[in-house]
Amino acid sequence: MQPMTTEQIRVLIARGKLKDTIFQAIGIICLAVGLLVIFLLVSDMLMRGLDRLNLAFFTEFASRRASQSGILSAWVGTVLVMFVTALAAVPLGVAAGIYLEEYAKRNWITDIIEINITNLAAVPSIVYGLLSLGIFVYAFGFGQSILSAGLTLALLILPIVIVSTREAIRAIPAMIREGSMAVGATRWQTCRYHIIPYAMPGILTGVIIGLARAIGETAPIITIGALTFIAFLPPVPFSATGVEGVSAGLFDWVMSPFTVMPIQIFNWTSRPDPAFEVNAAAAGFVLMGMVLSMNAIAIYLRYRMRKNIKW
Amino acid sequence: MQIHDTPTLKAEARNLNFYYGEAKALKNINMPIYDKKVTALIGPSGCGKSTYLRSFNRMHDLYPGNRYEGEIRFFPDNTNLLSPEVDPIEVRMRVGMVFQKPNPFPKTIYENVAYGLRVRGENNKRVLDDKVEHALKGAAIWEEVKDRLQDLAPNLSGGQQQRLCIARALATDPELLLFDEPTSALDPIATGAIEELVHELKKRVTILIVTHNMQQAARVSDYTAYMYLGEMIEFGKTDEIFIKPQDKRTEDYITGRMG
Question: B75-83: long-range contacts at Cβ-Cβ below 8 A with a sequence spacing of 24 or more?
Fold first, then answer.
């Protein structure tokens, strides 16, 4: 082959760069579609619900009159259910992830467990609802409570927590683990001093992504029998119960009936009176806000914690 | 100073074979390691020198499918380091290691050195302070870091990181210190500092060092072993190996005709 002249080289480069430009344009268009859809959704909800977005909306219970309805029981219920979900899913998922990465021997049993965890992530959420109805609500006798809902959603996000824990652990270089083991550390010491702290940013991100998914789940919560209309809050610990001399226990609230944001929204959209649609839009906007701020917290925490972890 | 014509044994490999799954990586190795001496392992890439080195602290036990045959006797107590009855953690408490690439933990300089002591249950601040300082001095890095012990270790330069890793290994007073090509990721100045340190350290600890660099082996070691394709071809005093190798293959490698 003859060596190319400068002119030929330039033509060649120009042709290559044209493809660069074309691909870049396609990429930007694809990206814009996604962003535009989200933007339109959020701004549409905001515009429709703007009338109802005031302080009273957050401090009032749902009511028969749309203009006086609020989301107090819904947002409190959502926050409490998420709290129970996190409390159950994080220790279980993190421990399972650590076990699978650091302790489990590679054999057919762990292979099967691994395949099952992946499958678990794909199980429709309604199936988790049915399972929980049988186990938590009836067999364990937790009833239609915050506890049942929290545990249901914990099961739902468990695979997400396990998978993100494992990925975070795998991102730790082998030489760090070897460095720890080489001074005579046990597996647990290595996990406690190194693996868990260094994996924490990744684990946290996974947990919050899981919670952001759980916060919008409606089907399993309806299945276990969350109320669609509820005009009281779960008992605050040690508050008066109305019965003389008896105050609420520290954990009474977990057994309380409840509702959550998506159910409240679903309830409002299914009403014939169009005035409730405004409420639904406003509540939808609030729910979006909750999800986005959770993601923002995840990003911030990951950034802050990763700053000090490098190898 | 006394001249050791017949140095004492610190360790001895006896009929050592090693398998990565089905693949045999070490073939019937017999070799002495002398107390308070530097023994260098040289040979072309893939000859098994790192595999051999990592047998001394049972690093292979961390991964499934690895198998040892034969013995590594450790003196004065004549323990077989490779025996299934001997816990690899016990072995690693006695045999320290410095890796090819500096691998400080993403923690403070202080915590990096104190880690081996913490693992042994030492939590007394004064004892830790003392031993950390002693180890950092031993690794010739104390002067550079004494005012910033709470800085993050990964912010040190590569050469400083490697000396910190040496301090981490020294802090627990190992009897044998393994170096796996400790200067391959360092510039010539940092390399010189490490070599000087190895020379200094052999007063207190027995050293086994893998190196790609034959000049390095010649500079730092008392004994040299040449390995090729998983076999120990030749072992002897470093001067003799470099000046008058007995085996043709050793000579070819040393004179640069192969490798």
Answer: B75/B8, B75/B9, B75/B10, B75/B11, B75/B12, B75/B35, B81/B11, B81/B55, B81/B56, B82/B16, B82/B55, B82/B58
